[in-house]
Amino acid sequence: MRLSLLLVALNALWAQDPIAARDALNQGVQNFRAARYFDAVQSFQQAVDFDPSNVTARLYLANAYFQQWVPGNDSPENERLAARAQDAFLQVLTLEPKNNLALASVASLTLNQKKWNDARGWFERIIADEPNNADAYYSLGFIAWSEWFPAYSEARVRLGMDPAAPGPLPDPVMRQDFLLRFGPRIESGIANLRKALELNPRYEDAMSYMNLLIRERADLRDTADEWRRDTAEADQWMQKAIETKRQKAQQAPAPLSGIRVGGAVQELKLLNRVDPVYPALAQQARIQGIVKLSLAISKEGAVKNVSVISGHPLLVPAAIQAVQQWIYRPTLLNGSPVDVTTDVTVPFNLDSSVTVK
């Protein structure tokens, strides 16, 4: 018995090795910055094994898993990465229950997995700790729309209604059913979006979903006057969103300096391309086309800065969000990696199969 207790004590002392933990953490950070996430996981796990109380190592470990996870991919391996990322973030929250990064990461993970109830709980927890977090309120509004829109869209198809045609649902029984099932959720979503806009009056995505929820709520109204009132308010939010996106696109920073490389040449070096998410507002308005961007690419191949050359204001933010995740093979000049600037085009086609958000 005494020997067993001694071995347990020695193992505990061995695990608490701050120097080894620091070395493993530093190695993991190098791998992480080079996008070698599999190797980073091994190093960060070693750092955690050497010092289980090291919150920084656990956060890096969780993010190394998170970076490898691909939203929308239902493969078993991808699901394992999501589970490992969530477990690692939860371990951080066990040590620091109010760790903002871990809370936001778990909320984002469950949101992208479309686990709406779980995501709602995490964002509500964020708001409890940060009552002025506009992003959390916006996310609750987006969740409300995501829960309601599939049933609403399917109903319009069943009724033979053109997706672009305005007007309330003609079936009063269906309208009443939707009000009972989704009415409180829609109102809660609108209230959360209003709060997000109180905190950030230039939150264009919140404006876009205000437009959608209010416009869709109009289709559940009983009278033409109520429908027109909601539709008019939705139109106002849509115009505000378009104008805010236009202003922000004009204010985008200029790209960093670097050697100029043609878009076709630079495209051959693209290692990781993330397709844009088609904005629901743009889809509803039947907007498509090409967004042209100027990129500043670091010596390591990461996109460091983006500026807008042309494109519809409703499409520009989605294009920027996508290309910011692109990774290129480093460009060499006389054998040494250099910064690069190049132009890219991001197409949006309503006939293509794209994710809508």
Q: How are the secondary structure elements laid out?
A:
Elements: H1 2-15, H2 18-33, H3 37-50, H4 55-68, H5 76-95, H6 100-112, H7 116-129, H8 134-158, H9 172-199, H10 204-218, H11 224-250, E1 259-260, H12 263-267, E2 270-272, H13 280-284, E3 289-297, E4 303-310, H14 316-323, E5 327-328, E6 331-333, E7 336-338, E8 340-348
Parallel strand pairs: 1-8
Antiparallel strand pairs: 2-5, 3-4, 3-8, 6-7
Helix pairs in contact: 2-3, 3-4, 4-5, 5-6, 6-7, 7-8, 8-9, 8-10, 9-10, 10-11
Structure characterization notes:
- With 357 residues, the chain is α+β, with helices and mostly antiparallel strands.
- The chain is 61% helix and 11% strand.
- The protein contains 14 helices and 8 strands.
- Strands 1-8-3-4 form a 4-stranded mixed β-sheet. It has a two-stranded antiparallel sheet with strand order 2-5. Strands 6-7 form a two-stranded antiparallel ribbon.
- The longest helix has 28 residues, at 172-199.
- It starts with a helix and ends in a 9-residue tail after the last strand.
Output mean pLDDT. Answer: 84
Radius of gyration, in Å, reads 24 Å
- CATH domain class name of the largest domain: Mainly Alpha
Number of strands: 8
**Major sheet, described briefly?**
4 strands, mixed
Query: Given the structure, what is the number of helices?
Result: 14
Low-confidence stretches: 1-15, 353-357
Main sheet strand line-up: 1-8-3-4
Shape: globular
Helix content: 55-70%
What is the string of SSEs from the N terminus onward? HHHHHHHHHHHEHEHEEHEEEE
CATH architecture of the largest domain: Alpha Horseshoe
Number of domains: 3
Q: By helix and strand content, what is the structural category?
A: alpha+beta
Write down the CATH topology of the largest domain: Serine Threonine Protein Phosphatase 5, Tetratricopeptide repeat
Q: Which oligomeric form is depicted?
A: single chain
Fourth CATH level, the homologous superfamily of the largest domain:
Tetratricopeptide repeat domain
How much of the polypeptide forms β-strand, as a percent range?
A: 5-15%
Give the end-to-end Cα distance, rounded to a whole number of Å: 60 Å
